[in-house]
Amino acid sequence: MPESSMLAVAIDVVNKSIQTVKKLRDIDLKMQTAEYKDALADLLTDMAELKIKLVEVQEENLKLKKIIAGQDQKGEIRKAFKLIRNTYFLESELYGYKPGYYCQHCFEGTGELKVLTPFGIYFLCSSCKGRFN
Ligand SMILES: [Zn+2]
């Protein structure tokens, strides 16, 4: 089972448990001791906190998955690059990036793909202002 599904199941279980505790609280008419009520209230609070934490873990998990997918993409792009005249040349379109010359400096520095503009015998980067030939 994927982690995100396991978390969704865990959150479901917490939700059901919260409902059960609420039901217990409602049907308990004979045991009206303060201790019992306090314990139930504590349990509800703990479960609500647990639910919040699980949702946070789920969000963090999704974020990390996106980062990993992005790194996989960059790895594929890196493999496809050819070093030509101090630039990275992409022969065919990949992940929406058009064939052409890309700034080596920007890709290695920030991981961003910046298209280079031919200018005379140079290629210019509008982002880092680099000039390559
Ligand atoms: Zn650049």
List its traits.
single chain, 133 residues, alpha+beta, 2 domains, three-stranded antiparallel sheet
Task: Note down, in words, how this protein is organized.
The chain has helices at residues 3-27, 34-80, 104-110, and strands at 82-84, 87-90, 100-102, 116-119, 122-125, 131-132. By secondary structure, it is of the alpha+beta class. The protein folds into 2 domains: 3-76; 81-132, no CATH class. The strands form 2 sheets. It has a 3-stranded antiparallel beta sheet. Helix 1 (3-27) runs antiparallel to helix 2. It binds zinc ion. Zinc ion binds at residues 103, 105-106, 114, 125, 127-128, 130.
Concise summary:
59% of the residues lie in helices and 15% in strands.
Number of strands: 6
C-alpha end-to-end distance: 51 Å
Strand composition percent: 15-25%
Give the overall pLDDT as a whole number: 87
The SSE string, one letter per element, is HHEEEHEEE
Number of helices: 3
Largest sheet: spatial strand order: 1-2-3
- Biggest pleated-sheet summary: 3 strands, antiparallel
Give the helix proportion (percent range).
55-70%
- Low-pLDDT regions: none
How many domains? The number is 2
Any idea what the radius of gyration is?
A: 28 Å
Ligand inventory reads:
zinc ion
Shape: rod-shaped
Structural class: alpha+beta
Secondary structure blueprint with pairings:
Layout: H1 3-27, H2 34-80, E1 82-84, E2 87-90, E3 100-102, H3 104-110, E4 116-119, E5 122-125, E6 131-132
Antiparallel strand pairs: 1-2, 2-3, 4-5, 5-6
Helix pairs in contact: 1-2
Zinc ion binds near residues 103, 105, 114, 125 and 130.
